[in-house]
Amino acid sequence: MASILRISALLFVVGACVADIGQQPVTELCLGCLCQAVSGCNVGLKCEGETCGLFKITWAYWADAGKPTLDGESPDSPTAYPNCANDPYCAAKCVQGYMAKYGQDCNGDGQINCYDYMAIHKKGPYACSGELPYQYVTVFNQCVATVVAQQQQG
Predict the structure, then answer these.
(1) Topology of the domain comprising 2-153
(2) Mean pLDDT for the chain?
């Protein structure tokens, strides 16, 4: 139950971000479940090794996403990347920008959707058709099923 509440809270935060930045490729549900699969939506997660934040964004991912920043900070600032990647709103903008640039049909089903974005986020745009880690896919699929069931109930 706690994980459902955490997902719901994160979907609210991420949903506000989606509304703020207009029409974007990745839905609120998709962002929330992507976050759940990547980090368990640990909003307190900071930089560890080469990744930062709840989406575990690398510097190259951030740069490919268009170098979004917080509060008008210059993208050339040495703190621009970690500040953005560690902030849920800015990190969601990174994911949106990255998927707007690299979105493609990774699983060959004729659609570009959340499952493709999940694969792109984990494997990158040039290897997204490859095999994904079992645990990553399992957590992602469980999240989607839980949120969809919750939405259908009320």
Answers:
(1) Lysozyme (1.10.530)
(2) 87
